[in-house]
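Page 42, continued from yesterday. The earlier attempt failed because a stray header line got pasted into the input along with the sequence. Redoing it now with the clean sequence only.
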Amino acid sequence: MFDTVNGLPAHPLFIHIVVVMLPLSAMGMIALVVIPQFRGKVQKYFVATGVLISVAGAFIAKQSGAALAQTRGVTDEHHDWGNRTFYLAIALALISALWLWLDTKPKSVARTVTGILVVLISLAAVISTFLTGDSGAKQVWTDRASVPSAPSMTEGAETPQSAVDPEVAAESAITVDDVAEHATSDDCWSIINGDIYDLTGWISEHPGGSGPIESICGLDATQAFSNQHGGQSEPESELAGFKIGILG
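This time it went through. Structure tokens are written below.
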């Protein structure tokens, strides 16, 4: 439902709702709690509306992120911070609703305690939003921002070797049906640009998490690889270490 917009991944679009609205609404709730002069009806209306939009945006971002993870992959760090931000948005909405209701009543200890919780959850939501965006930006830009002349995995480091019989490792022709028989996380072959790769040993090492690799086991992953790493020399260099044959 939230996979794409006009043929492009929807997640980068929808996360802007959360990045803008959640911190803004959180700071607005803090202002309502600590500045009595700010507690006009109009201010309360706009801040409460912003909190609700933040929750809706966080939900859509979470769903679109899950869809993106199936094709592009996300790091565990980004996934975890995204979940935390979603739950903090819900917590902020609930505690804010309670405080806004208590604010219509005479001053009480309950309102004071609830106000403190609003401030703490608001600060946590702002920090979590920042860390979610930071982890996502690192995943997208780390490879692209790397220096082109940086040494490949074969220079100064041992390239992971797939657990394949040396006789198979020659430029042997492997059929599509052969590849399809290796479609599990314990035995994962894939086709990329007409070459066959045994990615079993790379599943646990993949920077984007195991999901993207597991999703291409036994399949032709040419398009998926091109979408994620097209034109990047480092991923292509790493991939070469897992080649076991050509498509025949």
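Notes: DSSP finds eight helices and seven strands in the chain.
Reminder to self: strip header lines before submitting.
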